[in-house]
Task: structure prediction
Amino acid sequence: MGFGITFVSMPEGILFLFLLFAASLALLVFSSGKFIEASEKFGLALGLPPFVIGVTIVALGTSLPEMVSSILAVLHDNSEIVVGNIVGSNITNILLIIGTVAFIGKSIQINFNFKRLDLPFLLGTGLFLFYAIWDLKIAFWEGIVFLGLTLLYIILSLSKGTDLTDEEPPKLTGKIILWLLLGGVGVYFGAKYNIQSVVKIGDYFEISPAIIALTAVSLGTSLPELFVSLAAVRKGQAEMAIGNVLGSNIYNVIAIGGVSRMVGDIEVPIDIKNVSIWIMLAATLLFGYMLWNKRLTRMEGVILLLGYVLFISFSFFG
Result:
């Protein structure tokens, strides 16, 4: 299976590679945001309930940059980037985003019920990823399980209830269709050149592309969620940011892992198995422990942020 993509020849100047990396990442993030926004309006215009759109289109859409990057990585025989992308994004979401939210929000009270569905799924899918990569590859049947868990999580999320709104649904306009198309094209090309630049930069500095995906790429693709989370804190809706991270981390594992494995074989770098997956599990367990009393404090935010600094430092210098 393939999209008929070949690597374009690029000048070997490292400055150009960094510019290409930054520009392609910016295009990927911007386009995915526009694609999600247009998809949400498209769903509302077709009469879908807002809650359904939230737990399907929007929730899956937050993982869109990682998803497309991972698919193209598999197609270009750089599948070691996939697990680095998943693990790095989940670590960044917890340590950086939740840490920042908790630090700025000072003391956050969590009212939604995450203990019956979201938290068990977060811990369970993290443990299954740990099991799946233990032999340094993800088997086809494990990819099927990931996809099955994705479907199950969507169904269970929908069964929790629906949000009703009195707002008039938007009309389906040419602008919505245009942004759907442009957003999709932008995501594709942003991901394509981002993967190319990651591989070239890794070769230049003799750094594994998986490490770059684990750190720089995961940070870049998490920036929209960080900005959205900060906006939620300013509006007094910090718990919304926490819910977004819970859902995003679950979809990162099961949706990206499942779809990517259907595209092709996924190889797992030994460093991910020996180090990074343990950090992800530790961060996930710490997150679950902090959430258990339905309250996050500023001190807990400081602990998470310090953890992120240590993670980045260890990734490059450990």
Remarks:
- The radius of gyration is 19 Å.
